[in-house]
Amino acid sequence: MTRVCMVVFNNYLTDTRVRREAEALLDRGDSVDVICLREKGQERTHVFKGARLYQVTTGKYRGSSGMLYLAQYLEFFVAASFLLAFLHLRRRYQVVQVHTLPDFMVFVAIVPKLLGARVVLDVHDLMPELYQSKFHLRDSHWLVRFITWIERRSIGFADRAIAVHIPHLDALVRHGNPGDKFIVLLNLPDPRLFSRQTTTERSRDACFRLTYHGTIAQRHGLRVGLRALSKVRDEIENMEFRIIGVGEDVQYLAELSRELGLTDCVRISESWVPAEELVPVVLASDLGLVPILKDDFTQYMLPTKLLEYVALGVPVICSRTATIEAYFDDSMVRYVEPGNVDGLAAEILDLYRNPEKRRALATSANRFNQEYNWEKMKQQYYQLIDALAGEARAQGQGRALVVSNGSQEDRRSQSL
Q1: How far is Cα 301 from Cα 324, in angstroms, rounded to an integer?
Q2: Which pLDDT value is given to residue 365?
């Protein structure tokens, strides 16, 4: 049995990537502890599906102030560092897996690493490009260069690292990181939840349903989505658009919805939904929307929501980017140019009028599921964890041997 501790600056219940990896380890009998954020009303410590959760600090800032982001990162960093050191002295983890963002969170593992644990950094997103996008900075800006330097130091501190797809890895290498330190694990949906085998026939009623779930920020293009819907609402009877998630753009979208006269057909949940509750909502959808805008950060996104829609057999309209095109051709999803309101409106209307086209998209997209699936990726993940755990055990045995030999030498010296 391998003892693993994961650290993530997020809510464990809604972070599908962290849960999928943790539950994969639990399924084979490993021990997994998780240090994560605590949402209001949640207990600080409890067990969820076998994982022991240690929840520190509350909520996540989603505003536009870089200083407030940094302050909350640091608050979590300090709390998680002390807690991880304490837990390691009790449990002696072989592997500590830290999930970004931020990259420097990997240094919470300094005490376990000094005591022999191996550290893996799971790089979910590109932090330099995120700051370029969020705060409208150029890659030459001192802050972006500083964040890139931190990224290199963070990956250098880790024993191994994980990238989420090939274009993501290519960008990390361009930042100056060694490519041979990484494995690639796509952010694939958990097949126990997101699988066409669990898909039942969707109820056919008069409502035409569109869905978006995930972070609600301007870069995700939901403003474009609402404006596109306003152009076709008179052509589509009983239309409903479900937006599920949280983020800095929630209030703006609510006001835009009122301004466009869409309040009767747009539903904004303003909360995260656990994956178990999300699946039935997605299954009831006729279309999934992924209308991301194109910028320094989003050009490297392979959105998890897109992969979840495809896994469940829901046809998708999404923005055309090089990263998405690396995995999906034009027969698998319906592409629109990022930010094109009229183009998105035309595609929504065309797929509404032609159910057979929706079915053809869903059928073609299943090629992705056949080529990339979590069962294959899971074996690579197991190999990584097993190799690191083996190194940690070997180092521990080596230290024990040194101590034992030292004790024997002491006894011989005393006898002389």
Answers
A1: 7
A2: 97
Query: Within the chain, which residues score under 70 in pLDDT?
Result: 58-66, 197-205, 397-416
SS3 364: helix
Q: What is the CATH number of domain 196-363?
A: 3.40.50.2000
**What pTM was estimated for this model as a whole?**
0.84
Q: Which residues pair with 287 in a beta bridge?
A: 210
Torsion of CA 61, 62, 63, 64, to 10 degrees: 110
Q: In whole angstroms, what is the distance from residue 62 CA to residue 349 CA? A: 33
| Amino acid of residue 240 | E
The residue with tokens 């954020």 is 37
| Phi, psi dihedral angles at 92 (to 5 degrees) | 55, 70
Strand 45-48 with 51-58, pairing? antiparallel
pLDDT at 198: 52
Over residues 310-338, the pLDDT tens digits come to: 999 999 999 999 999 999 999 999 999 99
Q: What is the CATH number of domain 3-188+374-405?
A: 3.40.50.2000
| 196-363 shares the fold of 3-188+374-405 | yes
- pLDDT attached to residue 72: 85
Beta strands at 45-48 and 95-99: parallel, antiparallel or unpaired? unpaired
Under the phi-then-psi rule, with left for phi > 0, alpha for psi from -120 to 50, and beta for the rest, what region is 49?
A: left
The CA dihedral of 256, 260, 266, 270, to the nearest 10 degrees, is: 10
Exposed, middle or buried, 366 (CB in 10 Å: 0-12/13-18/19+)?
middle
Give me the pLDDT at residue 416, please.
46
